Amino acid sequence: MTHEQFLLILFVTSVVSIIILTAKLKVNAFFVLILVGLFVGIFSGLPTDKVIKSLKEGLGNTLASIGLVIVFGTALGIMLEKTGAAYSMADFILKKVGKHNAPIAMTLTGYIFGIPIFCDSGFVVLSSLNRSVAAKAKKSMTIMGSLLGVSLYSVHCLIPPHPGATAAAGIIGASIGKLMLIGLAVALISLGLTFLWIKYIGSKNNLNDVVIDESTIVIDSSSLPKPFLSFLPVFCQLF
Is the pTM of this model over 0.85? Predict the structure, then answer.
């Protein structure tokens, strides 16, 4: 076995180890990355002192390039959540497309709201609103929940300030602005295809007939910020 082949096997093993430790065993991702990094460095033949130095430099350089982007993006997401701007955006979109197009409304809301906020937090914030919209529009919660989830996740995987895309941009030296614009386009295309697929699966399995009771959470629209002010921070982030 050549050294290159061994390094390839070591790389694959490290990736599989990260997935198992974080997803299955629920070990904190930060400690997993440190441990796997030490493992790869030692078994690849680097001296111990150079392994530690490489980890410190790699972590420091990555945080220097993406730290502020992630912090400010997270702060913006929390602001939208606490002020009710997320509900304002969803209510505005729903009024424009109509209740009969409620799936489109929640998909667009997740797509826009997911730009600054992490997908898991966004799903928690918008779930009650999604349930309310599904009941009023007589739409399946299975379909509505799936659409909200994929809309949030589509931007989470491709667009800064989310950690994965931001870290990748920092490592390869890509422009954050260009990555956001390209990522938004790719996410929108993939989301459109997924939207059609979920609608197709829903109609094929008669999920459209499975609706929830209209005993939903009442949202006082008068206390929400204006739609323009709600959308403004998200669009300013893009420029």
Answer: no
